[in-house]
Amino acid sequence: MSRPNLAANVKELQEIIDGLDAPLRSTFENMHGGFPEATLQRFLKARDDDVTKAAKMIVDCLNWRVNNNIDNILAKPILPKEKFDAIRQSQLIGFCGYCKQGRPVFAIGVGNSTFDQASVDKYVQSHIQINEYRDRIILPDSTSKKGRHVGSCIKILDMTGLRLSAFSRLKTSTAIATVDDLNYPEKTDTYYIVNAPYVFSACWKAVKPMLQERTKRKVQVLRGNGRDELLQVMDFDTLPPFCKTTNGSIDNDPKSDVFSPNHKFHVELYDYIRQKAISSGRTINSLSNEGSLHIKVPTLDEQDQHSETCEVVHAIESVLPSLEASQNPSDENHNDKLTTKIAGIQVST
């Protein structure tokens, strides 16, 4: 998509940032990591190059970072360690490596994430820590290796195990998506959907026509485990285990399970956070007494209706009652013959 006024818009947005108070300018420096123009371009893209809307979005983001002390969140370990492990086992996300263009590849187990081992606050905290570690450690490392700026990632979403009941967890997943949408915009180039069961396919076919083109372009629903399509953008070794097999079997080796708290990425992440906390002069015992970390997440009503999260969640909520009414126990056994009328849209599988 052509952006003819991009340079002028970036300059105007930078002038707005330059006029902000010192704490906001400081957190902007921490956020852009040496690439201020690319960061401003992301916020502009998220608001269709509308400078006024992009300015509001980035100023809101900077205030959010200051008010929630996001610059220091990588020095706040989730304690005890067993709680961190429980979160990792119920909010499935892992780092797989890099695609051929150098972008980090993250796997997310959407269908089998339960979000039932901790408070929403803890899941949000953990997710932000992964975001900040990606932006401060992983992306700069890739930028250094590639010799050019790498500022975004790709995500592979595994829908294995997804059921209608999963939509009851919208509160936690929406909070996490809202954090990404408002404060880490355009950090994900593409969402690859794999192992999609009927319930997702039906919901997606109903929701997709309601979404803006900008949102739809980011989502690619692949056939089966998506292995052949994904090998066009990444090497075999980078594929998550659920995309490597042809017979549905999964390697149970904890070292290859990207979702396991014992996986190299999660071990290094937790050690990094723990060492950051200790280097600040605190002890683990004192950290245990600091209490829970609460991070403000705007409600859907408080968000700009231009928000991708608002758009997707409202669309899902609009079709869900019809989907629930149409679903019966025999549906999943006869998906190839089903034709379900959802929210006035004819969906065939």
UniProtKB/TrEMBL annotation:
Residue stretches making up the CRAL-TRIO domain: 83-240
A Pfam family annotated for this UniProt entry: CRAL_TRIO_N
Chain residue ranges for the region called Disordered: 323-349
Coiled coil: none
Name of the protein in its database record: CRAL-TRIO domain-containing protein
Organism: Ceratodon purpureus
